[in-house]
Amino acid sequence: MNTLPATTDDRLIWDTWLSSYRLPIMTVADEVGTFAELTAQPLTTEQLAQRLSVGARALGIHLGALAALGFVERHEGRWRATAATRTWLHPQAPGYQGPLLYGYRQSQPLHAQLLATLRPEVKAEAHVSAAAEWERGELTPARAQGLTAYMNAHSLAAAKAVGAQPLFAEVRRLLDVGGGSAIFSIEIAKAQPDLRATVLEIATVCAEADRYIAAAGQTSRVRTQAVNMFTQPWPQGHDAHFLSNILHDWSDETCRMLVRKSFEALPAGGRIVLHEMLMHDDGCGPWPAAAFSLLMLLGTRGRQYSLPDLRGFLEPAGFTGIEAFSTGGGYYSLVVARKP
Fold this sequence. Notes:
- By secondary structure, this protein is α/β, with parallel strands linked by helices.
- The protein contains 15 helices and nine strands.
- It has helices spanning 11-18, 22-32, 34-40, 45-52, 56-69, 83-88, 98-107, 109-118, 131-136, 141-163, 183-191, 203-215, 252-265, 287-299, 307-317, and strands spanning 72-75, 78-81, 173-177, 196-201, 222-226, 240-244, 271-276, 320-326, 333-338.
- The strands form two sheets. Strands 5-4-3-6-7-9-8 form a seven-stranded mixed β-sheet, with helices on both faces.
């Protein structure tokens, strides 16, 4: 089999995958009255949530996606419908496109699921989530196998890009927190011959990661350690902690707790490295991050965070020197901070 030159740019896959949220986020907003309210006057997220009788947290995630698509805009903390929305999506506008959208409310499963995030009383097909089992450390072997394969697939390109980052040349002992299949540790170890990595995971995921590590020929450089990152102490002796797609799974409160645990386990001068798809500072897109945030809303307890959001977790824990930069791997960035 001939092999083509490798790339770390998987945006084609992400763009196609996340496009499934474009229509249902619009039809949900049309149904609950978002466009009509934001045509009448600019409102904060909390004000709009009160007028629509929906949850403010979920509504904020919806609005970020709608802003990324150009349906709403935000200035000084208040949302307003754009000119196109006022023309085509206000129920009293002569150009209202509601009749075009009505049928898709029934035919799009994601419409019911996204509507249910705003209105929990709405019955929707259950969106698969393993958040509770993961938090308890109780994933079955079969569930762990499927989820690990899923995460490994969507991290392949990103891991290659992370492995190429020069910051890891200064790291000798890396703790890969919630490292899943170990794909990031494997790629970082391949690029840095003096680095050794430990993948911290629950036991059933460690068993899966061990298979991936062996297949990559990295058993002498990468190992697993069964630890529940929520309830058990983190191992010490590592000069950097790497968390990829971890914080976006959890609430602000849980994120603060995880960051504090990292700070406590790191030595002075140690670094925390967060690998996330960042929202813009104002929460208005970009679309890939905003759509990924909708996925988090459906299947986890989290959302995609902005750099100011992450700074709000890191600085109170004691971290300093916070910086962010793109990895060149699709839409991902690294946020790096140091323990003084």
